[in-house]
Amino acid sequence: MLTLEEIRQQLANRPPLLVEGPDRHAAVALVLRQDAAVLQMLIIRRAEHECDPWSGDLAFPGGKVDPGDADARAAAERETAEEIGLDLTLAEFLGQLDDLPGAFLPVRVSCFVYFLPCPAHFRLNHEVADYQWLPLDRFHEQERHRKMAFPFRGRTTSQPVVDLIDAAPVLWGITHRLVTQFFERIEKPMPTP
């Protein structure tokens, strides 16, 4: 079983690798909490929007880094407050993952990891349909991992996915890559499909 102290130590062991360009930059927050003795990760489900390429997907709260943001971390905190009403200044900042470039779209994503020491009450905006706290152990259940075909711009690509929530979309894409990186950084890699 993972402990918060192990996560703190592993994230502090090395600085993140930062990616330059493309100009489109997004920042997200990977938020953890402890419920009894169980560490959990916050996952949101994006609202359905016709023009959103990630409509209805599972994700972390976050969004575009704006020119008025002091840095990418400030953008992740601002976007999290806007999307779910969570003030991350009340959380413990644990570290930053390596930046990831988009696999299909010209974007780079920065991910910041937080621990929420007290209960939170969320206020979802129009961009978020739902949220769930998922135990970290669920991400390591082999039967939840598989590959799935996705159509994109006239072709089909096979991507690793995790079935985390019954009757909900699977975790895939850049959020899957961030979750994979998180578990690799804390030396608890997820199973592969």
Summary, kept brief:
The chain is α+β, with helices and mostly antiparallel strands. The chain is 18% helix and 34% strand.
The CATH architecture designation is: Alpha-Beta Complex
Q: Can you give the helix content as a percent range?
A: 10-25%
Largest beta-sheet details: 8 strands, mixed
Average pLDDT, all residues? 92
Number of E-state strands: 10
> Secondary-structure element sequence?
HEEEEHEEEEEEH
CATH class: Alpha Beta
What is the CATH topology classification name?
Nucleoside Triphosphate Pyrophosphohydrolase
Tell me the overall shape: globular
Structural class: alpha+beta
Tally of helical runs: 3
Strand content: 25-35%
Q: How many structurally independent domains? A: 1
CATH superfamily: Nucleoside Triphosphate Pyrophosphohydrolase
Distance linking N and C termini: 22 Å
Instruction: List low-confidence stretches.
Output: none
- Tell me the Rg in angstroms: 16 Å
